[in-house]
Amino acid sequence: MANEPLFPKNPDETQTSIMEATFDALAEYGYSDLTINRVSQHFDKSEGIIFYHYDGKDELLLDLLNYLLERVENGAIQLSNEASPKTHLRTLLDKTLPSADETQERDYEKVLIELRTQAIHDEDYRECFNRSHQGFRETVREIIEAGIETGDFNEVDPELVADFVMTLVSGEIFDRLTMNSNRMVRSELDSYIETRLLADQPN
């Protein structure tokens, strides 16, 4: 999602404005301390409009979760069909493990962690994350399969590689936010791509 704005600068739809206000409030207060009133403090219209669209906090947050996941999924890879599988894979990783420490990027990750903890005991949240997880995993698997077919990648197991990348990305984001980790995981992942995935290139 790097370099992809989560919200349009001048949203035309009221619900998009509500999503942005909810995002800002959740990033500031966290799930436990979030209230509709606090969302309305980031909203340029009346609190009553929020209640007109949503019955309560969790309905609002589920809508936000779906909005965020769809925005990221839709913009995950926008490349020409002529781009190589290697380029596709690196672009996907650039969007999910960006090197820049931008405020919105950090807030996005923080908000997703807040919402993901709700998936432990709430089936609706769990469904959203499972769908997103499977979509990301399938994208990686398809890239690896395409690279094997073109000869760009070695004969590896696409399923295992997809699981490995998914686990590494999820763990890196979680550790960075909850433990203030600053490890060079992306660098090591790039080394893995170079030494494990990329086929030997002819001279």
TrEMBL record:
One Pfam match: TetR_C_6
Keyword annotations from UniProtKB, A to Z: DNA-binding, Repressor, Transcription, Transcription regulation
Domain HTH tetR-type: 12-72
DNA-binding region(s) from the entry: 35-54
A molecular function (GO) term: DNA binding
Keyword Metal-binding listed: no
Keyword Kinase: no
Superkingdom of origin: Archaea
Protein name, UniProt field: Transcriptional regulator
Native organism: Halarchaeum grantii
